[in-house]
Amino acid sequence: MSSTTGTTSTTGTTPGGTWILGDRTVPRVGYGAMQLAGPGVMGPPRDHDEAVAVLREVVALGVAHVDTSDAYGPQVTNRLIREALHPYPADLVVATKVGARRDAAGGWPTARRPEELRAQVRGNLESLGVDALDLVYLRMGDATGPGAGSLGEAFETLAELRQEGLIRHLGVSNVTAGQVAEARTIAPVVAVQNMFHLAHRDDDALVDRLAADGIAFVPFFPLGGFTPLQSDTLSRVAAEVGATPAAVALAWLLHRSPNVLVIPGTSSRAHLRQNVDAAALRLTGEQLADLDAIGRRAALPPGRA
Fold first, then answer.
1. Is 18 exposed, middle or buried (0-12, 13-18, 19+ CB in 10 A)?
2. SS in 3 state form for 208-261?
3. Helix 114-128 crosses helix 152-163 at what angle (to 10 degrees)?
4. Residue 137, SS3?
5. Which of 32, 146, 170, 300 has the fewest CB atoms below 10 angstroms from its CB?
């Protein structure tokens, strides 16, 4: 598939293929840094040296897409990324998010006024140690999911920062399809980051629409988040292919559409390697159909499964 925004390739030596994210080609398996922070995504990691080692292993494994936010910690994951990887490899895309801050109780209050967004962009620039951010998502909604309303003023602020050269590319996160469409009337959108996994398929139609337009879809919580995916079907398929259930869930996402870029997070090098290996898993049509049924059952009303 080709388009004006992103192209995918499933040929060559990169398992799972690649995608042009903004202006750089990245393998479709990336890394989400949120789990490097302490419990509740607050404070320093349990093991600082292992966190740094994980990030260096990310690059050593050929991963070229790291997802973070200055709100993680806060500032913890960004500073770990800088410590481990700066100066950054030329092919590495570091994506970050703005639109929420952290409070003393560990909450995520919204922070989308123009002055707040500008301060967050400056904070990310400082903590990552860069002159321009590769990709910045505007986070909408809240912990319960996307919410109604316009993102116009907030996204216009980020578009201005892009024009000023502080941001290279823009994305939106935790959004409705209507908010994606609104954002695209303001500035180019190269990626959408929403919750999506085997058992949470609300954005099926959006994934396909974005694929047709060459826009990446980046699922957050690709393994279920704080309530990891559990399914007899998933476990059975994992046994059939000799992989972990998590690896199969990631492989399903990679099979779902060529514009899907996964960013599983972990604080362990062993789990990191398992996640990256998921790109090489090949699932049969029957296995994919069985896995698809997990999402269909999850979407049924109570008593109809």
1. buried
2. HHHHHCCCEECCECCCCCCCCCCCHHHHHHHHHHCCCHHHHHHHHHHHHCCCEC
3. 40
4. strand
5. 300
- The angle formed by the CA atoms of residues 285, 291 and 297, to the nearest 5 degrees, is 135
- Give the separation between CA 250 and CA 198, rounded to whole angstroms: 9
Distances in whole angstroms, Cα of residue 279 to Cα of each of 17, 55, 97, 225: 8, 19, 25, 20
Q: Is residue 52 part of a domain?
A: yes
What single letter denotes the amino acid at residue 214?
G
The pLDDT of residue 225 is 83
Please report whether residue 277 resides in a domain. no
Spatial separation of the C-alpha atoms in residues 74 and 72, rounded to whole Å = 4
- The Cα-based distances of 136 to 68, 82, 175 in angstroms read 10, 17, 14
Look up the pTM and report it.
Answer: 0.93
Residue 169: which of 134, 194, 140 has the closest Cα? 134
- 2 pLDDT above the threshold of 70: no
**Beta strands of 68-213 (E only): which ranges?**
93-98, 133-139, 167-173, 191-193
What total of structural domains would you count in the chain?
Answer: 1
Q: Which domain holds residue 54?
A: 27-227+261-267
pLDDT at 14: 67
Report the CATH number that the domain containing residue 117 is assigned in CATH: 3.20.20.100
H helix or E strand, kind and range, residue 118:
helix 114-128
Which residues are tagged catalytic?
Answer: 72
CB neighbour list of residue 144: distance below 8 Å, 6 or more residues apart: none
| Token pair 């400056």: residue | 122
Of residues 305, 297, 148, 151, the one with CA closest to residue 234: 297
Give yes or no for a contact between 189 and 137, defined as CB atoms under 8 angstroms apart: no
The pair of three-digit structure tokens given for residue 30, joined into one six-digit string: 């990336």
